[in-house]
Design brief:
The structure is a homodimer of 303-residue chains. Chain A is built from eleven helices and 13 strands. Chain A is α/β, with parallel strands linked by helices and 303 residues long. In chain A, a hairpin with a 5-residue loop joins strand 11 and strand 12. Chains A and B meet through helix 7, strand 13, helix 9 and helix 11 of A and helix 7, strand 13, helix 9 and helix 11 of B.
Amino acid sequence: MSILVVGSVAFDSVETPFGKEDNILGGSATYFSTSASFFTDVQLVAVVGEDFPQEHVDFLGSRNIDLRGLSRVSGKTFHWKGKYGYDLNEAQTLETHLNVFADFKPRIPEEYSSADYLFLANIDPELQMEVLNQVTTPRIVACDTMNFWISSKRNALEKVLERVDIFIINEGEARQLSGEANLVKAARKILAMGAKTLIIKRGEYGVLMFSGSSIFAAPAYPLEEVFDPTGAGDTFAGGFMGYLANTGDASEKGIRQAIIFGSVMASFNVEDFSLNRLKRLNYKEIEERYRELKSMTHFIGIP
Amino acid sequence: MSILVVGSVAFDSVETPFGKEDNILGGSATYFSTSASFFTDVQLVAVVGEDFPQEHVDFLGSRNIDLRGLSRVSGKTFHWKGKYGYDLNEAQTLETHLNVFADFKPRIPEEYSSADYLFLANIDPELQMEVLNQVTTPRIVACDTMNFWISSKRNALEKVLERVDIFIINEGEARQLSGEANLVKAARKILAMGAKTLIIKRGEYGVLMFSGSSIFAAPAYPLEEVFDPTGAGDTFAGGFMGYLANTGDASEKGIRQAIIFGSVMASFNVEDFSLNRLKRLNYKEIEERYRELKSMTHFIGIP
């Protein structure tokens, strides 16, 4: 089954302790859809400016991503500039130029409106709601958000959460949204807002999933070379949703497997700038790393 | 088989966002031996002052800990005073009064010198070496250290590491000792110093174990109430070594299980000040939490 993603397609300028790249391909919807495309068909809704090169469009097309929802308007493409220190868990935003993204009104093409899987990437929760209103009967809706929306548009965000199945945020956002320092307490408060499943991303420490009374703890794949963490969260979400859509299995068992595939995808993505690593990735490598994570986490139970 | 531990028995004064306690029982050897005593016999070598109350000695005795190596000398007992913020991963040391610990020269009682398992808690590496020289043929030696010794006595520490089987430190110490921000690189450099197995503690994020080319990632048990993290690392080490000594199985499989038992013990310990939670803990609860960690980390492999 196919996934619809609504988010940003952008240029990033990124500096890490290991290098510096300007105006490289980025954006939440870009990372998400490329990652998901390893597992299933993806339909993308986003906006770019006149400066967005055909080369990037061609790349997304080569991943079989349906681009009928990618509109090109006059003006410049969204541009994010950020920097990471040796603690690669947190980016420092240097500049944000919304450009054409400032007036983004996601219009879901008729052909997309019956999507079974929907991912609302990190955009204004009011826009997330507009998308929800245009997609008729999604089977699974997942969404992301960020500190900026939690503080500036909490009410709109809470309304979105009432209609979401899976909420995917990072540790700091979970603490901010709940007002709880303890993650177990934070998770309980957030689940009460609506989503059935909460996935908390903890960067190099992995992921915690809360669902009903169940908790799943997945480590991140331990990497020797982390080059650029940009897009890791969206790449995780893409692998996660992609696998769910591929199997149609949203049971606890299926969600746990999807989390591991998401973690694997994120682990590849951070090995290079932009989507460079995903561009040269194949499915065999994905499966191999999944198996490695399985063996890295295995221990014998007791009777 | 029994374990010999050499470390501190101390008074702690601890402040956390949830409360404040003065002059409570603490010390690395105290936490370690109490935790290990749930699994095996423990022999303790440490020093206390005249102010150390019989009540604490009686408690340790009630855990069947062999106290022939606990010497009482004139002067005051080691006293540590520290504080934690909402980020419970790191303590801020407010005061350290070494007192009788300043002149501590560990003398291993004749009856202890053939110990099979030896844990060198966080003390001056020169003293750790003196202990090593007094224990004839230990099967497994594990040790801990801290930032202070890494910067002030690196050579002595490196000599100790050449004779150690299992090195248990926290994330920050691993980075400091190796000069590498990346933990996988850090682990490789540290393993080259001698220990066959390196266990890196990451507080609420769990543990990474490196051994040869194998990596094991274990999450911490997600707790809703973390009251006081003091002693978590030593309680982990006690559960870990205790289980190893109990089974005699130091294979990769046995070490992984021991890490989970260590994590379980640490998760109980942080639920209350001092050793209060361990004092009212029973083995059934330990096994139950082990099973919970097993189910929290389980996911289906792929063919």
